[in-house]
Design goal:
Blueprint (H helix, E strand, L loop, with lengths): L1 E7 L5 H13 L3 E7 L5 H11 L5 E11 L2 H14 L3 E6 L7 H6 L2 E4 L7 H20 L7
Parallel strand pairs: 1-2, 1-4, 3-4, 3-5
Helix pairs in contact: 1-5, 3-5
Length: about 150
């Protein structure tokens, strides 16, 4: 898998950056992170985020109104992307103002990490852990316990 994560805000917090780097090191999938600092509108942010994702990639957005998947369902969904979309995946994490209409319209899947609001910098770490967990589920590794 080749995964591009496009996000608003830069991961500067040392402990969070260390966690992100740890999961990235564990992942066998190629992960690219595109971060944008902006004080612009949702529309301006959306253009930056969409510009980071290859048009041929399957696009997932992380959105509070998205579908709640458990880890096994997420892993199965990623397996489908590997098979049917040549393993090219783009994931967008918006900023504090949410995602623009354009980003939502172009997305092929919307996923939520629950109904609670999470800081977008924490969401990156949660996403990386879930990507690693999905990888391990697909490999049959006991990291994920049901």
């Amino acid at each position: 898998m080749r995964i591009t994560i496009a996000a608003i805000g830069k991961l500067k917090n040392v402990p969070l950056k260390s966690l992100y780097d740890e999961y990235k090191k564990r992942l066998e999938w190629k992960i690219s992170l595109c971060e944008y600092e902006t004080k612009g509108s949702k529309e301006q942010e959306g253009l930056l985020l969409l510009g980071a994702i290859s048009p041929s990639a399957f696009l997932i957005i992380l959105d509070e109104n998205g579908e709640n998947l458990n880890s096994k369902e997420f892993a199965d969904y990623l397996k489908t992307i590997q098979i049917h979309h040549q393993g090219k995946l783009g994931i967008i994490i918006g900023g504090a103002n949410g995602l623009s209409y354009q980003v939502k319209e172009k997305s092929q899947k919307s996923i939520s990490f629950g109904r609670m609001t999470w800081p977008h910098l924490f969401v990156r770490i949660m996403l990386m852990e879930q990507l690693y967990r999905a990888q391990q589920i697909l490999k049959g590794h006991p990291y994920h316990r049901e």
